[in-house]
Protein 1
Amino acid sequence: MLSDLQGYNQLKDQSAVRALIPRILYYNEMLEIFGLRDHQVEDTTSRRQHLPISIPMLIRKALLLVVVGLIFIVSVLINLPIIVVARSYSRKKAKGISKGTALDLCI
């Protein structure tokens, strides 16, 4: 009995195996994009018997997206006053510096 590596080394030059490699790489890339493991793919098929597994997974990922979005919005709102104060302070300092020199800044 050959191990997987020995079997691959013997068969890697066949055209069927070479044609399969890009498809496997694409499959792995899609798994990474969707955040799934290989063993979860069968559980997400559209067959009726798998709906009890697929729907909670979809709801969980949608709720995670909503929570991350809310955290983003809250963090922007919390930091907005600091951004406004820093920008106005920077403009005041830039105007003060440019008055003493011949250099005109576009502010």
Protein 2
Amino acid sequence: MNLKSIPRILAAVTLAVLPLAGQTVGSMTPAEQRIAKEVRHELLMLPYFGVFDYIAFNVQGYNVALTGYVTRPSLKSDAGDVVRDIVRCGESRQPNRGASSFHDG
């Protein structure tokens, strides 16, 4: 094992245990499960997520609450942007939803 690979392994282990903030998959609707899966994937793909960062999330309907702490302020805004895009996409997939001022922009 190379010493340079140790931080990468630690980051992978840390990212693998990103929690769903105490929520069980069995208690979630299929739409919430899809959103949780997408949010987890996108958070794991953030380029500056490190071993000293902790991001958890909770999905309730089309609301996603992010909690935790990060070492870079840009990571906080990047995580919020990623989640916002996923929720917007999920809301637009729902049939019979009236137009809102949010989409009229």
Protein 3
Amino acid sequence: MAFPVCPIPGCGRSFFRTALLLEHQYAEHSEFFPYACRYCSARFTTLGEMHKHCHATHRADFMRDGLPHACDRCTRRFASMAGLTRHVRSVHASVPQAMVAQEGITDEEMQA
């Protein structure tokens, strides 16, 4: 069984599946860069490459923007409301919010 090979002169990479070859051609040999970094002028051919760039180059901004749901009892942030709800129920379930506000309980005490 022959593996698909990139036909671009000088490349010649081979792939297990045609879909991977097409992804490679789009990412490596395309002049089309549809994904733009929201923090700088960098542009990318794939969403994954843009996310890697944002995470490596703009980590603080990317983490804040990528995790919009903040726990009001500690410093944790979550990508979804469901994740935040699971966190509150599992970590803070035994500590009522009113008690946290009145008693000034620290994050370490809540997680103990």
